[in-house]
Every structure is written in C-alpha cells, then in structure tokens.
Amino acid sequence: MIDDQRDVVDYLSSPAAYGRGVGTVTRIDTHSASIFLAGNRAYKLKRAVRFSYLDYSTPALRERFCRAELELNRRTAPTLYLDVVPIVRSTSGALSIGGNGIPVDWLVLMRRFDQDNLLDRLADAGRLTRPLVLELADHIVQFHSSAERVFDEGGYAGLLGVIKINEENLAQAVPSLLDPSAVLSLRDITSAALSRSKLLLERRKAAGRVRRCHGDMHLGNICLIDGRPTLFDCIEFNRSIACTDVLYDLAFLIMDLEHRSLRALGNAVLNRYLDLADETDGLPLLPLLLSLRASVRAHVSIAAARTQKRPDEVEGRITLAREYLGLALRLLVASRPQLVAIGGLSGTGKSTLAYGLAPDLGAVPGARVLRSDVLRKRLKGIAPGARLPDEAYATRMTQEVYSGLNEAAAAALAAGHSVIVDAVFAQPAERAAIAATARAAGVPFIGLWLEAPPKLLAERIQARKDDASDATVSVLQRQLTYDVGPMDWIPLDASGDTATCLAAARAVLSARHLPSG
C-alpha cells in the first residue's frame, strides 16, 4: 500500500509552514518529487510512488533516499545541499518541519537558486553559450575522473536492464499514447545494437569506465551556482541506474542538446570531453547510448503527464514523450563516416571553420574535431589553454603530433564517427598521410587549404584569447617562408568573416556529395 501524502503536501503548500518572512510558496511537481520554494530555501518532498526502477512508497524508504541524495549530490554541489529534515506530527496532530513529534515524512533541504539559472531555462532563452558548455564539459570530466569505480554494475547487463525498464514503461503507454509500431521498432533495433556492443561494453567495464555517475545529467539538472555550471539532483534511488559507463552519463546531456536543436553545443561538449578524457574507444557506443537516453525521457515524460492537473500540461508531456520516441529511433540510424582535413598557416581560422563544420558531418552530434594544438598539449600532459615552451615545437615533436592525429583519426573513423583534422599541414608528406588514412578506412576525403593576406593573419594572432594555439607573429613569419609544395587541396579564401568562409566550405562539401547527419 502506498502512503497518502495529501496532508503533508497541503501543509507544505502553506507559507505558515516556514515561519516569518515567507509570504508565498511555489510548488514544482515532477514524476517523483514535489519541490516547495519558500524564502531562500527549497524543500524537496519525495512523492509516495513506486515504479519498476524507483520505490518511494514508505516513509522509511523516503528517509533513506533523502539521506543518499544529500550525500551523493554534495560531490558536485556541496553548497546547494544543506540537510535532511523530518516532517513531524505532534501529539495534537499538527505538522511541523523538524521539532518534537513523530516523523511522518522527510525533506531534502536545499539552498534556493534563481530558476532562470537552470541550463534548460538558459537554452530556452537563447543564452546557453559555447564557453559555458565548454566549462561544463571540463567540470564533468573532473567529476567522472574522481567518481567511484564500480565493477559489479554497468556493462552489457547494466544497459540490458535499462532497455527492459524502457520497454516495460513504454509498453504501458501503448496504444493510447504512443505509436505501437514505433515502440516495437525501437525495441528490436535497440536490442540488436546492444548485442553488437556487448564485447566493447564489457571491455570498458573491466577497464574501470563504469563509475558512480550522476545518472540524470540533462539541462534541467544543471544550474549556475555562483556563476559556475553545477550538477545537481543525481540518481540516488537506484544504484544500477547511477553506476554506468561515463559515456552513457555524458550521453544524456548531448541527447538533451540535440532534442533542443542545439547540436553545435552538443558537438562542443563531446569534443571537449574527448580532448580531456581518453574515451575515444567508446565512440561506437554513442548512437545506442544517446538513443537509450531519449527512450528514458520518453517514458519519464509519460509518467510526468500522469501527475499534471491542467490538460495543457498533460498534453505537453505526452507531446514530449512522442518527440523523444521519434528521436530515439533517429539516433540509431547509421551514417557513413568521412574525413575532412583543414590546413593553412596560423591565423587562417582553421579551428573556427572546423568547429563550424563539425555539427553538419556524420551522426549526432557531428564530427570529432582533432586539433594539432590540443593533441600537442595532451601529449605533454597539460590543459589546452596552457602554453608550451618552444622545444615542444621541435621537428621531432611535430612529427609525433601528426602521427598522433593520423592514429586518432583512424580510430574515430573505425568507430563509425566522422572526423575533421585541423593542423597547418605545410608539408606535402603530412597532407599525403592524412589522405592515406581516409583511403585505408574506406571513407570519403576532402582537404581544404585556407588562405589570407599575411597582415590579416598577424592581426588575428595578436587578437587571440583563451585559445589552444601558441602561435605568435614570429611563428607566422617563419611559416610564411615555407615551401608547401604542390597543393592539391581545395583552396578557400579565409580573408572574410567566419560565416562567409563557413558557407564556402559547406558548398565545397556539398558539391563533393559528402553526406551530413
């Protein structure tokens, strides 16, 4: 029997529950919780619900998971999560937050923040920027690297469990709310993709890639706290769901950005994450992981629809569920990988063009961008924004960088992922080697060579800030003396603005019939 919480909810909905200074209470309902915003605090009540993957049906379970929520979320948001407090009933029958009496329910006490600082709100307002999601990706890498390694969860069995949960919950919405043929097709395609991925999932599990992750890392569970992107509201109620491959954790964020038509930001997140963490071997899993995340959101949206009171809110959640179901199917559609190389002297805008083209190429969220500047620093064990000494640019080190670019490109292509390689490519042998990488992988290849007047290149270099490139004007002067040899790559005028160069590059790729995602 599931508890009746109506008297608790009525009590928490009244400003009188919170003492002086609280004139209004704002209530937010999800499928598993009700959050009451009062004064400078937020009070989270777990709803007395039971699903196949979650059980909050008794006060004892709700207390247990409130305490787990506090502990786990303090990993990423220590200033946001304050305490666990009881709702008690006195001998007279009156309810109070804390104090003397018998505990009848439990609350997670949190510091209240401006709801407009949630990243889903920022996205809706068009205020979610590339620098912000890059900072977020850095934070996620740090979180994953320090998270507890888990060897008794995740892997093939873990994702099989996710698929079963998805199937069971989606089936409850058929045929009244969801298209039966779409649900059946998703089940079959997902099962086949999981079977193909079994060995890789198990290898990654054995290598420690399964961690105690966030588990629910969409934009609505990330906010700006003191100006920094902060993860909160992680999964505490189901260890199997929370203990996953780190790429499955990341996939929720990328899927959410894709659903919101923000693929360029999803591409930025993936590339930044892979620049900082050695997870390229997991790229073959990405379509499946993204699709599973969309499936999760589909059945959660159906569950949330059942808790809404207003007809328009019910219909809105059902529409979301249908969108996520369609997205889950689209994410599993195969896309032929391709390789694009972008060369040119420092200041020609190679990286800007690479990141501009990347969302257009291949499967969601677009191409893997491999930058010589980033790889060089990774080989030296430093962050992309740090500066290297001059000896890091010696001939031997440069040869190692180009060899590393070819190897990384081959690995990503083998994983079924499109690649854009960004480097000077001043030597004919360097250009020949990257073209040979494409031939060996059996994928289409295009080389683009960017050109602009030396004076403009020098001005751009001097104006750079917070970039992985260490190039200076003196480096450019040295490059201008290079004999680049016969140029068989397609020249592009890079002297104009970014949009003009990007449009020209897209026209070239379209003329060569390189397929986009």
Q: How would you sum up this structure in a few lines?
A:
The protein is α/β, with parallel strands linked by helices.
Write the layout of secondary structure elements.
Layout: H1 6-12, E1 26-29, E2 33-38, E3 41-46, E4 50-51, E5 54-55, H2 59-73, E6 81-89, E7 95-97, E8 102-111, H3 119-124, H4 130-146, H5 155-171, H6 180-206, E9 210-212, E10 222-225, E11 228-231, H7 239-242, E12 243-245, H8 246-259, H9 263-276, H10 286-305, H11 311-330, E13 339-343, H12 350-357, E14 368-371, H13 372-379, H14 395-414, E15 419-422, H15 428-441, E16 445-451, H16 454-463, H17 473-479, E17 490-493, H18 498-511
Parallel strand pairs: 13-15, 13-16, 14-15, 16-17
Antiparallel strand pairs: 1-2, 2-3, 3-8, 4-5, 6-7, 6-8, 9-12, 10-11
What does this structure look like?
This protein has about 525 residues and is an alpha/beta fold. It has three domains: about 5-110, Phosphorylase Kinase, domain 1 (2-Layer Sandwich); about 120-330, Aminoglycoside 3'-phosphotransferase, Chain: A, domain 2 (Alpha-Beta Complex), CATH 3.90.1200.10; about 340-510, P-loop containing nucleotide triphosphate hydrolases (Rossmann fold, 3-Layer(aba) Sandwich). It is about 45% helix and about 15% strand. The chain has helices spanning about 5-10, 60-75, 120-125, 130-145, 155-170, 180-205, 240, 245-260, 265-275, 285-305, 310-330, 350-355, 370-380, 395-415, 430-440, 455-465, 475-480, 500-510; strands spanning about 25-30, 35-40, 40-45, 50, 55, 80-90, 95, 100-110, 210, 220-225, 230, 245, 340-345, 370, 420, 445-450, 490-495. The strands form five sheets. Strands 1-2-3-8-6-7 form a six-stranded antiparallel β-sheet, sandwiched between helices. The protein has a five-stranded parallel β-sheet with strand order 14-15-13-16-17, with helices on both faces. A hairpin with a 3-residue loop joins strand 1 and strand 2 (about 35-40). Helix 4 (about 130-145) packs across helix 9, helix 8 (about 245-260) runs antiparallel to helix 9 and helix 13 crosses helix 14 (about 395-415). The longest helix has 27 residues, at about 180-205. It is elongated and about 90 Å long.
